[in-house]
Amino acid sequence: MSQLKYLNAYPDHLKQQVTQLLKDEKLGSLLLDKYPQQHQVRTDRALYAFTIDLKNNYLRKSAPVSKVIYDDKISVTRDALGLHTQISRIQGNKLKSKNEIRIDSIFKRGPEAFLRMIVVHELAHLREKDHNKAFYKLCEHMEPDYHQLEFDLRLYLTHLDQVGKLY
Questions:
Q1: I want to staple 84 with a disulfide (CB 3.0 to 4.6 A). Which of 26, 70, 125, 151 is the partner?
Q2: CA distance 167 to 117
Q3: How far is Cα 128 from Cα 96, in angstroms, rounded to an integer?
Q4: Are 145 and 120 in contact (CB under 8 A)?
């Protein structure tokens, strides 16, 4: 079960079920039944609009987001799916800070639910820097199925890793 690197924190009985689905070549069809459509958020501009729409619905009073892009280097260099950074710059005698969100470019294709889950996760970092109870409560506020989507996303990543593209 070492092949299930995205499911390390889950109980053994779940990992055994996923291993069986992989052996039976049924993991892909299970995911496609649940998430049959790919999203159309393919450009950085569309990703920015998608993210700002979510932010405006749930986090209007949070710090603004200045940049949202797909990034080819995240998973390779940071071993992450998304990244929220706060960049501080000195301009004259003032300190200006900008929030940026970078999403792994493997999510240019895939279900909208997974992209939304990752964006929600990164937006939650605008208010909560650590992965604590308040952070996950905020994620669930923005996306009620957050934890199920996270698990399904891990299944999707396992499929990509073990079998290849789903769509």
A1: 125
A2: 19
A3: 20
A4: no
**Which residues pair with residue 71 across a beta bridge?**
104
Strands (E) in the chain, as ranges, are 65-71, 82-91, 94-104
User: pLDDT tens, 7-66?
Assistant: 999 999 999 999 999 999 999 999 999 999 999 999 999 999 999 999 999 999 998 999
pTM of the entire predicted model: 0.88
Looking up tokens 């260099």 gives 77
- CA 110, CA 133: separation in Å to the nearest integer? 28
70 CB contacts (<8 Å, ≥6 apart)? 44, 47, 102, 103, 104, 105, 107, 108
Q: In what order do the strands lie in the sheet with 65-71?
A: 65-71, 94-104, 82-91
CB 103 within 8 A of CB 69: yes
Enter the tokens of residue 71.
């990034």
pLDDT tens for 122-139 read 999 999 999 999 999 999
Residue entry with tokens 């929220």: 84
